[in-house]
């Protein structure tokens, strides 16, 4: 009888006799494939009286029979089983095994059954519920820690008996081994524990996986046989398929490495890669165009979520990719806290998909995946449950009018394991060009849909390769696209230059820019005449897109010969003209200040008007000339002189024209009012009332700084708590008539997690407070609740913390400070708001209001946890005396244009024939 048939007969005999291991039998374990070389060394395999087993219990009074019941019926005739009676964590029994040869490998085998949805768990650190473990240590004591070796199974139990095998591979160090069953659920039954010496052979599961991969690429297209033979593809595939039971693991490993190299070289040389090239960009948090093979081992330094990654979109919609750094794969969203599969949607899949325009040809989509359950309310996010809850479907399907066409689907379906990846290969012959969706979906099995456990799907190694009948490969076509992109850039810059020359009111740099246009246009026109063949003729296999290294070939040549010159010329032209234009910006700002009713009582109007007239004279002189460093320096000096005149003018408002209604810098300690159940902080003038207060960094109250390592940090700044702090304006000081109410304060905006912060101005109609104006928004998602003034709350004008995990100390720093100025003109019955931060400023349009008196100012937040707070400081509320309004005057009018009539390609805005530079109109 042939040996293979003999082995099959021996395996059948083992089933018939009820014994798991027979000499000469090959068995698979998580550690690989082993052949049994000797007899069972566990004399007590029948569980007849539990002799040879020792109780594991914290109680000295417990016996084996307290934990296990001997089942006389057992697994099979002559083989008794034991059933667990006590599921107490860490309690059970163990069998002590001392091998005579420390270098010998052994297979531990046992049979087990339990109710559906019960599993044994992988846990290599500590004994845990439903755990079967073998440990070996030189302490010669169960649970010892010296040289511990632990091997486990992660298998799903059913109501039918199953045999589980795992290996102990000795390394020559003498150890005592302990096979233990602890914390087993009461519906788990165990039988036929055996230990037999074994020898490791090649794991043919690895062979079969590589055969599947090689055949997927070999059979996807009618390749020339000589091509396959030349690479050794056919020969090594045949060798791999012929690898038999007697092959060693080392022999298989060497052959697998060879085959992997052959497949990689074959695919690279003969098939196009339909995922974009690129590199992970840590600066932009992966926002570049990475090559999405979904190997996330070096993705983020800490777990972050991305709904899309490169070409891929995540399923379900709204979830995202998370990194599993330990296993180099992507985690498709976290689900736990007693949720069912897919966060309570057991009929919906988890997965990824991308859509591609594919030409006729042959394609192979490959991906690996696994899926597991997470026990609810576990902080360690363990994903090692033995249950196999899902199956996966990898597919390629045509999209017509935005819908899938099921009759064109090519797919592969496999079960998913909890701790090892299942590989999928889908081959599809595309006969009609069009849009196709390539993706992977993991579905919950019906038997597990009611489990109250979280779930997760992992993916890695996604690839899409194709062989089309196109004359050129995807890399060559990509090279052509890169070249044409560079030519287009040159043409776009030429158009921009011509618009600059035609539209600019100033003459600085026009001649130089025109000279560059004349030179570059001839070169770009010549490149535009190159056809596809001419461009691709310059392609080489080692091409890398670059404008600074010659590896970019024609891309590099075009940029260096033409494009960089016109880009530089445009930048210089705009820079020198913006320098000239900047004096108009300074003049506009000075005139806006001069006409601002806030300074109606100022005594320095004539001096400021004189400074403005002088600046206009310098402007006219500069316009008539050409650019030079001396002229540019003259403009800078004139701007500085005018800005100084503006600031000096502001100081000439007489003190008697200003009444301070509140001046609070939060340096004074808070005082508790027990009767009113609130706190207050006094300023130089007036005070602020807080609804709550505390120094604890973990509290969500208002605070003046907080204690950290025994020291109070930022004690003179108000940390905005959950609620609203109020400054009341006394009735006799409330502004009305022709006067102006002006509020100034600093706000440091934290990235509150979907919560809001801001300020409110209230009036009172005799019955209740009503809002005159407010700004209340969330920096986390830039969602606004109140925005009376229509402020731009982008980070340029109101900076915030980009990382929601930053602490208070990282928020309250100068770069995050936003200064607010709110003005209510009771003479005009108009109001506006300005913000300034990091050199950027904005002023809203003037809004009409009904002239209601402001009776309260509120600082508000609904954030209810401690860290990442907002901070508030330097509040000043003033009444400024002003006379009767002579008409509606504009405040910084040019800065508030919302709808430009034309935007040039260089980014300049044209409004009624005028430029808008830095938000200001320039003639």
Helix content: 10-25%
Name of the CATH architecture of the largest domain:
Sandwich
User: Helix- and strand-based class?
Assistant: alpha+beta
What percent of residues are in strands?
25-35%
**Discrete helix count:** 14
- Total domain modules: 5
Shape: flat
Count of DSSP E strands?
49
By CATH reckoning, the class of the largest domain would read: Mainly Beta
List segments where confidence is low: pLDDT < 50 over at least 5 consecutive residues: 1-18, 119-131, 278-304, 377-384, 888-923
Distance between the termini: 102 Å
Indicate the topology.
Layout: H1 3-17, E1 26-29, E2 32-36, E3 53-56, H2 64-67, E4 68-76, E5 79-84, E6 92-97, E7 105-113, E8 118-119, E9 131-137, E10 149-152, E11 156-157, E12 162-169, E13 176-182, E14 189-201, H3 204-218, H4 225-231, H5 233-241, H6 249-270, E15 272-273, E16 305-306, E17 308-309, E18 312-315, E19 321-324, E20 329-332, H7 341-344, E21 350-358, E22 361-374, E23 390-400, E24 403-404, E25 410-415, E26 422-430, E27 434-444, E28 454-468, H8 474-503, H9 510-528, H10 532-536, H11 554-595, H12 605-623, H13 629-650, E29 658-664, E30 671-673, E31 678-682, E32 687-690, E33 703-708, E34 711-719, E35 723-728, E36 740-748, E37 757-764, E38 769-778, E39 783-787, H14 808-811, E40 817-825, E41 830-837, E42 840-843, E43 847-848, E44 856-861, E45 871-880, E46 902-903, E47 909-911, E48 914-917, E49 920-922
Antiparallel strand pairs: 1-2, 2-14, 3-6, 4-5, 5-14, 6-13, 7-12, 7-14, 8-11, 9-10, 9-13, 15-28, 16-19, 17-18, 18-21, 19-20, 20-28, 21-27, 22-26, 22-28, 23-24, 23-25, 23-27, 29-45, 30-31, 31-32, 33-34, 34-45, 35-44, 36-40, 36-45, 37-38, 37-44, 38-39, 40-41, 41-42, 41-43, 46-47, 47-48, 48-49
């Amino acid at each position: 009888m042939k040996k293979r048939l003999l082995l099959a007969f021996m395996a059948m005999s083992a089933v018939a006799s009820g014994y798991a291991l027979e000499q000469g039998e090959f068995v698979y374990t998580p550690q690989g494939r082993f052949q049994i070389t000797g007899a069972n060394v566990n004399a007590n395999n029948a569980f007849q009286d539990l002799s040879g087993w020792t109780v594991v219990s914290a109680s000295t009074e417990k016996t084996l029979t307290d934990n296990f019941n001997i089942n006389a019926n057992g697994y099979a005739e002559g083989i008794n089983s034991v059933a667990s009676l006590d599921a107490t964590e860490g309690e059970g029994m163990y069998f002590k095994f001392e091998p005579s040869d420390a270098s010998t490998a052994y297979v531990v085998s046992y049979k087990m059954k339990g109710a559906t949805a019960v599993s044994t768990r992988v846990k290599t650190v500590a004994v845990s519920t439903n755990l079967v473990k073998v440990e070996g240590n030189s302490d010669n004591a169960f649970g010892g820690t010296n040289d511990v070796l632990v091997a486990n199974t992660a298998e799903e139990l059913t109501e039918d008996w199953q045999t589980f095998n795992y290996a102990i591979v000795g390394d020559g160090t003498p150890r005592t081994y302990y096979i233990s069953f602890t914390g087993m659920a009461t519906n788990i039954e165990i039988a036929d524990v055996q230990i037999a010496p074994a020898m490791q052979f090649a794991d043919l599961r690895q062979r079969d996986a590589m055969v599947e991969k090689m055949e997927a690429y070999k059979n996807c297209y009618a390749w020339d046989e000589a091509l396959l033979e030349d690479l050794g593809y056919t020969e090594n595939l045949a060798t791999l398929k012929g690898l038999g039971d007697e092959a060693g693991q080392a022999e298989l490993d060497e052959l697998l490495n060879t085959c992997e190299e052959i497949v990689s070289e074959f695919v690279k040389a003969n098939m196009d890669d339909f995922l974009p090239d690129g590199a992970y960009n840590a600066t932009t948090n992966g926002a570049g165009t990475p090559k999405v093979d979904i190997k996330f081992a070096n993705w983020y330094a800490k777990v972050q979520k991305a709904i899309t990654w490169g070409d891929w979109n995540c399923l379900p919609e709204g979830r995202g990719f998370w990194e599993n750094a330990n296993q180099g794969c992507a985690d498709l969203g976290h689900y736990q806290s007693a949720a069912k599969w897919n966060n309570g949607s057991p009929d919906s899949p988890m997965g990824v998909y991308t859509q591609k325009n594919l030409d006729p040809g042959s394609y192979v989509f490959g991906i690996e995946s696994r899926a597991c359950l997470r026990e609810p309310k576990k902080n360690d996010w363990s994903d090692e449950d033995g249950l196999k809850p899902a199956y996966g479907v990898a597919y390629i399907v045509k999209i017509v009018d935005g819908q899938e066409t099921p009759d064109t689907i090519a797919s592969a379906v496999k079960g998913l394991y909890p701790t090892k990846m299942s590989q999928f290969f889908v081959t599809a012959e595309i006969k009609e060009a069009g849009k196709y969706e390539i993706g992977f979906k993991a579905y919950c099995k019906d038997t597990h849909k009611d489990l109250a456990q979280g779930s997760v799907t992992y993916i890695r190694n996604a690839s899409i390769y194709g062989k089309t009948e196109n004359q050129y490969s995807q890399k060559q076509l990509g090279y052509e696209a890169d070249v044409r992109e560079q030519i287009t850039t040159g043409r776009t810059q030429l158009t921009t230059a011509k618009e600059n020359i035609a539209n600019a009111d100033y003459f600085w740099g026009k001649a130089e820019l025109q000279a560059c246009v004349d030179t570059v246009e001839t070169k770009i026109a010549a490149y535009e005449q190159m056809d596809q063949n001419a461009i691709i003729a310059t392609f080489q296999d080692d091409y890398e897109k670059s404008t600074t290294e010659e590896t970019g070939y024609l891309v590099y040549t075009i940029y260096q010969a033409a494009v960089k010159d016109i880009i530089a010329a445009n930048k210089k032209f705009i820079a020198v003209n913006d320098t000239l234009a900047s004096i108009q910006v300074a003049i506009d700002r000075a005139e806006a200040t001069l006409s601002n009713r806030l300074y109606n009582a100022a005594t320095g109007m004539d001096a400021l008007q004189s400074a403005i007239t002088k600046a206009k004279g310098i402007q006219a002189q500069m316009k008539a000339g050409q650019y030079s460093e001396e002229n540019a320096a003259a403009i800078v000096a004139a701007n500085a002189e005018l800005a100084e005149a503006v600031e000096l003018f502001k100081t000439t408002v007489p003190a008697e024209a200003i009444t301070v209604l509140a001046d609070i810098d939060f340096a004074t300690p808070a005082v508790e009012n027990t009767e009113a159940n609130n706190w207050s902080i006094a300023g130089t003038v007036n005070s602020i009332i807080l609804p709550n207060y505390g120094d604890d960094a973990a509290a969500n109250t208002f605070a003046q700084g907080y204690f950290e390592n025994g020291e109070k940090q930022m004690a003179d700044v108000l940390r905005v708590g959950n609620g609203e702090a109020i400054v009341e304006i006394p009735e006799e000081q409330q502004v009305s008539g022709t006067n102006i109410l002006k509020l100034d304060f600093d706000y440091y905006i934290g990235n509150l997690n979907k919560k809001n912060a801001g300020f409110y101005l209230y009036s009172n109609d005799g019955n209740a407070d009503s809002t005159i104006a407010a700004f209340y928004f969330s920096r986390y998602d830039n969602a606004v609740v109140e925005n009376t003034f229509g402020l731009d709350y982008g980070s340029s004008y109101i900076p915030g913390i980009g990382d929601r995990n930053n602490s208070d100390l990282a928020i309250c720093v100068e770069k995050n400070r936003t200064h607010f100025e709110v003005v209510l003109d009771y003479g005009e019955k108009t109001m506006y708001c300005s913000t300034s931060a990091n050199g950027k400023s904005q002023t809203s349009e003037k809004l009409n209001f009904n002239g209601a008196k402001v009776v309260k100012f509120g600082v508000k937040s609904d954030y209810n946890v401690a860290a990442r707070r907002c901070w508030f400081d330097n509040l000043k509320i003033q009444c400024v005396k002003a006379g009767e309004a002579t008409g509606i005057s504009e405040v910084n009018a040019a800065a508030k244009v919302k709808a430009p009539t034309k935007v040039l390609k260089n980014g300049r805005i044209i409004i009624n024939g005028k430029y808008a530079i830095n938000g200001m109109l320039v003639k």
